[in-house]
């Protein structure tokens, strides 16, 4: 394998790992948060507004780690700096 | 595949570049300003309604929007709702309209570009200390960074920076991911499958706009709360 193939293959594998592992944690976390929020909503329907808003804000916080993983994946796949550097070296 | 609408350049003059993001941002601004101008041109006051004048349809929409925003701002910000609501509502409306524009085929959401979202997050980043200083004064605000001990100073400063970055990257990542999913689905299963994704995109766009505005409000409110404990 020449170095270009290694870079391409490792980028794709790393991208898959990044999005896969990066989705597990936030998925579990958001599930917990939603479960607790539904419990609270069932017990105190009067506080629906506050609970829903806090849930949204918290979920946005939890979600940001998944978004970081996604951005890294997209950079690895479509805007990989090493890949572009080697392409410019090889292609001239 | 283009990741951001920044990459589509229409016109270039030396270092000045006119790309898709700028054009679409101006389109959204024209849309918002034009709509506001049209709606507020012929407003009907409370007395006129009692006299039997019909309320224009769009004035009802405008009033409902403003009242809903004011209610949300009052819940989060308490006393400062009146002063900060225009900024937060503008943020919400701009992001919401941008995301809606992005759902139209042939258009992109200006919020799908990191430069736009960083600009929006920087507005919040500047407003948090500005509002804190206006409320409690310069020295009292700076002392806020030394809470609970002076050792926490670097961490407090870092928290301020990192949440600004998180605000920008979150919005960018969400809008960009929606766009990429649409593009990929269009390639592997054209015609009918992307339609539900577009519908979901409409909902997610509004949720993201709401989250951005609420997070900005929460950050600003958090800046005030720690000071009032003194």
UniProtKB/TrEMBL annotation, chain A:
List the protein's name: ATP synthase subunit c
Purpose of the protein: Key component of the F(0) channel; it plays a direct role in translocation across the membrane. A homomeric c-ring of between 10-14 subunits forms the central stalk rotor element with the F(1) delta and epsilon subunits. F(1)F(0) ATP synthase produces ATP from ADP in the presence of a proton or sodium gradient. F-type ATPases consist of two structural domains, F(1) containing the extramembraneous catalytic core and F(0) containing the membrane proton channel, linked together by a central stalk and a peripheral stalk. During catalysis, ATP synthesis in the catalytic domain of F(1) is coupled via a rotary mechanism of the central stalk subunits to proton translocation.
Indicate the annotated site residue(s) for Reversibly protonated during proton transport. Answer: 63
The family database entries (SUPFAM superfamilies) matched by this protein are listed as: F1F0 ATP synthase subunit C (SSF81333)
Q: Where are the transmembrane segments?
A: 55-79
UniProtKB keywords: ATP synthesis, Cell membrane, CF(0), Hydrogen ion transport, Ion transport, Lipid-binding, Membrane, Transmembrane, Transmembrane helix, Transport
UniProt cross-references to Pfam families, sorted A to Z: ATP-synt_C (PF00137)
What family is reported?
Belongs to the ATPase C chain family.
Enumerate the spans annotated as V-ATPase proteolipid subunit C-like domain: 13-76
The topology of this chain with respect to the membrane is: Multi-pass membrane protein
Per the record, the domain of life is Bacteria
Give the location in the cell: Cell membrane
| A Gene Ontology molecular function term of the record | lipid binding
Record GO cellular component, one term: plasma membrane
- Species: Desulfobaculum xiamenense
Automatic annotation (TrEMBL), chain B:
Instruction: Please give the start and end residues of each transmembrane region.
Output: 20-39, 84-107, 113-134, 171-193, 199-222
User: Which Pfam family is an annotated match for this chain, by its short name?
Assistant: ATP-synt_A
Q: Does the keyword Transmembrane apply?
A: yes
Tell me, in one coarse class, where this protein mainly resides: membrane
Where found, per UniProt?
A: Cell membrane; Membrane
Presence of keyword Translocase: no
Taking the record's annotation, the residue ranges forming a coiled coil are: none
Q: What does this protein do?
A: Key component of the proton channel; it plays a direct role in the translocation of protons across the membrane.
HAMAP family assigned? ATP_synth_a_bact
Q: What is this protein called?
A: ATP synthase subunit a
- Native organism: Desulfobaculum xiamenense
């Amino acid at each position: 394998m020449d170095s270009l193939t290694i870079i391409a293959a490792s980028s794709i594998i790393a991208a898959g790992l990044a999005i896969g592992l990066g989705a597990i944690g936030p998925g579990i976390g958001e599930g917990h948060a939603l479960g607790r929020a539904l419990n609270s909503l069932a017990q105190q329907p009067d506080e629906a507004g506050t609970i829903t808003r806090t849930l949204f804000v918290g979920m946005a916080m939890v979600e940001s780690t998944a978004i970081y993983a996604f951005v890294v994946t997209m950079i690895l796949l479509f805007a990989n700096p090493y890949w572009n550097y080697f392409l410019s070296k090889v292609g001239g | 595949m283009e990741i951001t609408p920044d990459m589509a350049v229409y016109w270039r003059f030396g270092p000045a570049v006119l790309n898709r993001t700028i054009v679409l941002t101006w389109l959204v601004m024209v849309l918002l300003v034009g709509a506001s101008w049209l709606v507020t041109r012929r407003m009907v006051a409370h007395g006129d309604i009692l006299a039997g004048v019909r309320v224009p349809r769009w004035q009802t929409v405008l009033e409902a929007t403003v009242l809903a925003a004011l209610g949300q701002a009052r819940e989060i910000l308490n006393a400062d709702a009146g002063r900060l609501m225009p900024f937060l509502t503008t943020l919400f409306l701009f992001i919401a309209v941008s995301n809606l524009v992005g759902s139209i085929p042939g258009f992109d959401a200006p919020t799908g570009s990191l430069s736009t979202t960083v600009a929006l997050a920087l507005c919040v980043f500047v407003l948090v200390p500005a509002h804190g200083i206006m409320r409690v004064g310069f020295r009292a605000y700076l002392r806020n960074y030394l809470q609970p001990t002076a050792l926490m100073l670097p961490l407090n400063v870092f928290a301020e920076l990192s949440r600004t970055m998180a605000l920008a990257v979150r919005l960018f990542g969400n809008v960009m991911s929606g766009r990429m999913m649409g593009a990929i689905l269009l390639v592997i299963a054209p015609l009918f499958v992307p339609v539900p994704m577009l519908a979901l995109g409409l909902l997610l766009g509004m949720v993201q706009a709401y989250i951005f505005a609420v997070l900005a409000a929460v950050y600003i409110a958090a800046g005030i709360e720690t000071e009032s404990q003194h």
